[in-house]
Amino acid sequence: MPNLVAELNSLDFSVYIGGPLQAAVQAQNAASMAQASFIQAVGFETIQTDSGTATRLRYVDFSFKKSVANPDYGKTLEQLKQEGRVPSSATAIPGNIKVSERFLENDVTIKVPFLTMLTLPALRIEELTIDFNAKLTSTETSNVSSEFAANAELGINYKIVNFKASASYKRTSTNGTSVEKTYNMGVRVRAINDEIPAGLDRILTMLEDSIASVNG
Questions:
Q1: How far apart are CA 116 and CA 112, in angstroms?
Q2: How confident is the model at residue 83, as a pLDDT?
Q3: CA dist 2 to 126, 142, 177, Å?
Q4: Longest C-alpha distance within the chain, in Å?
Q5: Which residues contact 109 (CB under 8 A, 6 or more apart)?
Q6: What is the sign, positive or negative, of the torsion defined by CA atoms of 78, 82, 86, 91?
Q7: Is residue 72 a contact partner of residue 87, using CB atoms and an 8 Å limit?
């Protein structure tokens, strides 16, 4: 009987188990570097200055019309004089003060940091499951073969009869043992888009505070 325990101990588990783990660590490292490269490539732009090139944060400008309530709606000339909006000697409401319109439209431009508009890649391996099954099957074989051979010779010489006969028998028996090895391996990886690091979250919060709107 073969020593199946020795056969099992001969397996290099550092390859079967350590290989997927090392691959997961390398994948996590690559994901972190991809996040840094994404922020650098998308969130910043290179500009030309008098002293050379410089890198600055990339902004996106939005322009739109915003309707706001008209604070002068329905006011009379006397009210506007009391508020100091028009001179006391004025005999008519100036054209730039619209008292007949309930709402006014203003042109608004907003500058928004581009990074605050994107979902930053933050892939994290949450779970790694390695299923490895080793199946060793021992089989004993036995083979028996038999051979039989015979020959005879008859000769006549001076009235003397000579008869010669010979026979041989051979039996061969062989025994052997074979071990069948079957290996099954499955690797399951569960990755999620993790929350961004605390430091990066603070930076994005500061960038959101820098969003400015200008009324035209």
A1: 8
A2: 83
A3: 42, 15, 7
A4: 176
A5: 61, 62, 63, 213, 214, 216
A6: positive
A7: no
Residue 206 identity: M
Under a CB-based contact definition with an 8 Å cutoff, are residues 99 and 75 in contact? yes
**Distance (Å, rounded) from C-alpha 2 to C-alpha 137?**
10
pLDDT bucket at 140, cuts 50 / 70 / 90: low
Cα separation of 80 and 175, whole Å? 118
Residues 6+ apart with CB under 8 A from 8: 134, 136
pLDDT band at residue 4 using 50, 70 and 90 as cut-offs: low
How big is the chain, counted in residues?
A: 216
For the record, the structure tokens of 106 come out as 């203003």
